[in-house]
Design a protein that fits this description.
single chain; alpha+beta; four-stranded antiparallel β-sheet; 4 strands
């Protein structure tokens, strides 16, 4: 079982390496605004990506993917009912369908190096990318055979919970990390700082809401990881999100740095107006100020989706900032239009400074002779 899990996780890591290499190659095929200008080179880079990804799947997952999915389903059947179980079953079913399609194609490979092979790899790429993105779910479920150590009994749990709650109020509890386990509980690790000693504490629940409790204390993080239930994959902000391994073509955009340079180099109000209008433009090719507004909206939605007390608070703050920015964008856009309507130019007294150019000898000038060094007399003792 450990070999199956390591194969799935290793495949994801290798796919990440392939993705970085191809994204670097694709960057060389785009102009400064992100538009693809060398289409043949981009197509060749994607063909290399597809071939490498299919080869990795054939070597590491094709013979074992079915066994991994069976182990994941068996583990899923033993879990208590939770909100995410149905979605996990659907994901495992989709992984199974993708695996079957990939295996069928690998059993009937096209002629190596032919156009048919490139088409076959291109058709398989979305399935392989889906496994790279979500195959970790099957690996994590199959790894649920790990049996956590016995946790604190009821009396000890109450004593430790009161002790850690007091430390939390005094600011003597430093949160380290958190994860969800298969039954839906959120577990958080924290350092309890007392008398210059650090104890690793495991909490169950939201540390910022009433009702959380201590479920264990350990000498270090490794011991905590061995004793506590294994994590499961975290969720996604949007259920229909694209895969990080199969992102769409980037939208062309003008960098903010370039717009700033346009303003500094401008001679007319119309030039500055155009730069500001570009920054506040909406739609497909939105400007950087509008994209920042979209970023704040997405971050606010993410914070709310955390389903925690702090997440709700921070989501409200981010939402308020987004609304303020939307008002600012509208103000900048209107001001840019008014500035362009002035049809003004900079007055001539704002003349540029002359560059400081150091004089150089003419090309036919003989370089000066080096100084003559006279030999120092030898001193005799």
């Amino acid at each position: 079982m450990a070999d199956l899990v390591s194969r799935a996780r290793g495949f994801r890591l290798r796919m990440a390496v392939i993705d970085r290499e191809i994204q670097t190659a694709l960057d060389t095929t785009r102009d400064r605004y992100g538009r693809t200008v060398h289409h043949h080179a981009a197509a060749a880079a994607r063909a290399r990506r597809n071939e490498a990804a299919v080869s990795e799947y054939a070597a590491h997952l094709a013979p074992h993917g079915g066994h991994l999915l069976e182990a994941a389903r068996r583990a899923l059947d033993t879990l208590p009912p939770a909100r995410h179980i149905t979605a996990w079953r659907e994901l495992l079913g989709a992984l199974d369908a993708s695996h079957a399609e990939i295996v069928r194609a690998l059993e009937r490979p096209a002629e190596p190096g032919s156009a048919a092979e490139r088409e076959q790899h291109s058709a398989l790429w979305p399935q392989v990318a889906f496994w790279a993105e979500h195959g970790s779910l099957a690996a994590d479920l199959a790894d649920q055979h790990h049996q956590p150590h016995a946790q604190l009994i009821a009396g000890e749990r109450e004593i430790w919970t009161e002790r850690v709650q007091a430390a939390r109020r005094l600011g003597e509890l430093d949160l380290i990390e958190s994860w969800y386990v298969a039954d839906g509980r959120r577990i958080t690790l924290a350092y309890l700082i007392e008398d210059d000693t650090d104890t690793v504490i495991a909490l169950a629940g939201d540390p910022d809401a009433p009702g959380w409790e201590v479920i264990g204390h350990f000498g270090n993080e490794y011991a905590a990881g061995q004793a506590l239930p294994r994590p499961v994959p975290p969720g996604v902000l949007r259920a229909d999100t694209t895969s990080r391994f199969d992102r769409p073509e980037p939208v062309p955009e003008r960098p903010l740095q370039e717009l700033l340079r346009d303003v500094v180099e401008a001679r007319t109000a119309g030039d500055v107006s155009e730069a500001l209008l570009s920054a506040t433009q909406t739609g497909y090719d939105a400007g950087p100020m509008v994209r920042l507004e979209h970023l704040l909206d997405a971050a606010a939605a993410f914070s709310h989706a955390l389903d925690t007390v702090q997440g709700q608070r921070l989501g409200a703050r981010l939402g308020a900032l987004s609304r303020q920015l939307a008002f600012l964008v509208a103000e900048v856009h209107e001001t840019a239009e008014n500035l362009g309507a002035t049809v003004a130019v900079l007055p001539p007294h704002r003349a540029p400074k002359s560059p400081r150019v150091r004089s150089r000898p003419a090309l036919d000038t003989t370089p000066p002779a080096p100084p003559v060094h006279t030999a120092s007399p030898v001193r005799r003792l």
